[in-house]
Design brief:
By secondary structure, this protein is α+β, with helices and mostly antiparallel strands. About 20% of the residues lie in helices and about 40% in strands. The longest helix has 12 residues.
């Protein structure tokens, strides 16, 4: 049974230093699991059964948790200096925040980097949504979204690059139950010029599950959302 988005994995070079940022700056302050060892369940993805130092932690106000992990059986690779955000696959995570300016100040205070200051969230600008782009101290990208009513919380959504928006919407609707369309938008997105390039035409859709989460974490998960992004040109 799919209960929604439970957590995202973040590979890092130093687990303790990285987790300190996510704890202090983004309030992932409730550890759920902390261990070192192998994780055979992800071998189909990583191809080799490596040992990892892992902590899974959640935000007390809900949303998906984070899994911060560091390989210990090999030297972790650094984040590339230049990231192509037009590729297909995972792009970045989104956080719900209540006061975007204050949240950015906290990120900066904890050695994060502000890529874009608070600006209109183009698909929902008629509802006064605001957004900003930042990275953690080690270069991993995140997005803040302030819709005027949210509390600060854990991971609210993930963005996935796709080659065909309509086909991808059908897949996530049919097979994963993301059947509610929060928005569908096509055009330029100035708030993301720093990621995708200036004046690029973007197709994007934010999807949510209508079925409420079940199981022991149902009060925290909130179901999660997925944003599908197709960059033209």
């Amino acid at each position: 049974m799919i209960n929604g988005m439970q957590h995202i994995g973040i590979g890092v070079r130093n687990r303790e230093e990285s987790y300190k940022f996510y704890n202090d700056a983004l309030l992932f302050s409730v550890p759920m699991s902390k261990h070192e060892g192998r994780c055979t369940g992800v071998v189909p993805i990583i191809e080799k059964d490596e040992t990892r130092n892992v902590i899974i932690s959640m935000n007390p106000y809900g949303g998906a948790a984070i899994e911060v992990f560091q390989y210990t059986s090999k030297t972790p690779a650094p984040v590339p200096k230049l990231v192509d955000f037009t590729y297909n696959g995972y792009l970045f995570y989104g956080l719900a925040v209540k006061n975007i300016k204050k949240s950015l100040d906290i990120v900066k205070k904890n050695n994060g980097n502000i890529i874009t200051s608070a600006t209109a969230f183009t698909p929902m600008k008629d509802r006064d949504w605001r957004t900003a782009v930042f990275t953690d101290p080690f270069g991993i990208t995140g997005i803040m979204v302030d819709n005027g009513s949210s509390k600060n919380s854990g991971i609210d959504y993930v963005a996935i690059g796709v080659s065909n928006l309509e086909q991808s919407i059908t897949f996530y609707n049919t097979f994963l139950g993301y059947d509610v369309e929060i928005y569908k938008y096509e055009g330029e997105c100035p708030e993301w010029d720093g990621l995708f390039g200036k004046d690029r035409k973007i197709k994007r859709a934010l999807l949510q599950r209508s079925t409420k989460p079940q199981g022991p974490f149902r009060h925290f998960l909130k179901g999660g959302m997925i944003e599908l992004i197709e960059v033209e040109g």
